[in-house]
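hi!! sorry for the late reply, been swamped w classes. u asked for the two structures so here they r. pasted raw, havent cleaned anything up. first the sequence of the first protein and right below it the tokens
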Amino acid sequence: MIHALACVHPNAKIDETAQIGPFVFIDDDVEIGAGTVVDANATICAHTRIGKNCHIFPSAVIGAVPQDLKFHGELTYTIIGDNNVFRECCTVHRGTASMGKTVIGDGNLIMAYCHVAHDCSVGNHNIMSNLTQLAGEVVLDDCAVLGGGTLVHQFSHVGSYVMIQGGTKVLKDVPPYVLAGRDPICYCGLNSVGLHRRGFSEEQIESIHMIYRILYQSGLNMSQAVERILETVPESETRNQIVNFVKSSPRGVIRGH
């Protein structure tokens, strides 16, 4: 299943069910899992691990050395899970000594011209629309949708089930379950449509909405709002997730509208 015009390093480990197109370059110490398709002109650089049933479209570059000037050739990795799609010309860079690896989970759709920089941690079932750019050491949790041209600042954290407006500059952490956008970025409400689609109950959504009313509409600062939430909102997994996100944010979370 390897095209005669592909260039594959002899040390690469490619499952026999994977498909490698013409003019693909696969470097040393690469592993590609069952059912993965690598289309023409894509490049898979050294020390990359790609799971099962991924699809890498033409001219994508996966696992290139980072653009961080502190990188001096140390052994680092790019780790990619199963069922991911990387559209045309997207780029993923391997880690630096800071984290040692760039990690992308399962079931992500990374559209054309997107970039995932060194040491990023991307979770599962995210959609990064065209031209979305993640700077170094960004954390993107699960089931988020980032609109086209979203720019995420280095070290930022984007929570689960978030939807971010296209063209947004993400300069602060974005807590889970919210809509975010405008310039400068701010909280624009709850991602209620996305939560319904993901099977959240009306009770769960109302609890989340109550938490964000306290965080953004009570007039309290973040520390006071967290205390109010802990006092008044019944304990749940979603409540704890939001509170822990806010309390552990070194950059601070986005402001209210």
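now the second protein. again sequence first, tokens right under
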Amino acid sequence: MFLAQSSFPLLGFIIDPIAKLMGYIMDWIFTGLSSIGIVNLGLCIIIFTFIIKLVMLPLTIKQLKFSKMSALVQPEVAKIQKKYKGKTDQASMMKQNEEIQAVYDKYGISMTGGCLQMFIQLPILMALYQVIRNLPFYIPQLKTLYTQIATPLMETKGYEKIITGIGDAAKVTYKLAENPQLDDVIGYISQFRTASWTSLAEKIPSIADVIQSTSAKIIEMNDFVAGINIADSPGFRISVYMIIPIAAAFFQWLSMKTMAVSNDKNNPANSMTKQMNLMMPLMSFIMCFSFPAGIGIYWSASAIFQVLQQLIVNKYIDHMDMEALIAKNMEKASKKKKKPSLTQKMMEKVGGESEVPTGDGSITNAAKTKTKNYDNGKNADEISYSNLQTRNAKPGSLAEKAGLVKEFNERNKKGGSK
């Protein structure tokens, strides 16, 4: 299966392989339903979305665990921020960061702990959207139908101007490439609405029979329920299609509503979350009027499964032993701290093995060792890092460690490593 045009060109090298794998799942669903006489792409989209959400469940649980822990951390962080409010000097900022880090350490989590799950989920969700948006390139049976129209179409003189005129009327999102190849034409006409096929047959009567017979099969596959065709957009009119933007907006609002949010009014994140709870459903509602119904069905199904998933996971987390979870987090954090950091590795590389201790690789131990002063070409004399300018900083503090690294690098720049 070849994708003519990636939905996310900048991240295509990551998303396209994931989309290809998802495409096999979508084709498997379509083939399975077809074998029992159900040819319905809308139903395939719903089942496909459910499977992907199920696969992503472990990541969702981890993210919700972090959210639960953050709710415990936030009141303490807010007190620290209030304590240093209005203090913008470097020393105060460093102390504030140090105290906040200590709170996170107490609960065994990182300030950026929830970001990893989000970064992992993001390309998966993008790939999911790409598959829904480009179904002919992931379902061979569907691509075959479009090929039957595209092949004789490309043999017609001036066909590019004809299909782009129809595409403009249908408000397609793809742009037809210059000197289009077969996949380019398939990708373009796959965005046609139901009425577009009638226009195409009228404008090119020489292949009208092929267009009519083949498009009838495509329309049948796109027929979802109650006369809703996944290729058509609801439009700003009263019709059965109104169900889609309403469902997309409502279930997305419900999904965001089920997410746990603390009641701390002083937390600025809560205000932002409340605004998002209103803005995101509203945006979905408006966008669903102009997007193909298939996209709206996908958004609705995704939100419905998210609500169910959220309720189940919330119930699971509410019955968890938080003390045991904190102990487990602290154990993991302790193991990570035993590994040398990037800064420590850089110090070892710059200073040489003889000058930087290899015991536990800590900056604190490095500060206690002897090194030679090559400042301004003077005779080397033994000094201790403990006597550097950083000695006034609180022992073990972030300020002390930052000063040690800076002083260490400056001395090595002047004299070079031994």
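hope this helps!! also noticed smth abt the second:
The first strand starts at residue 370 and ends at 372.
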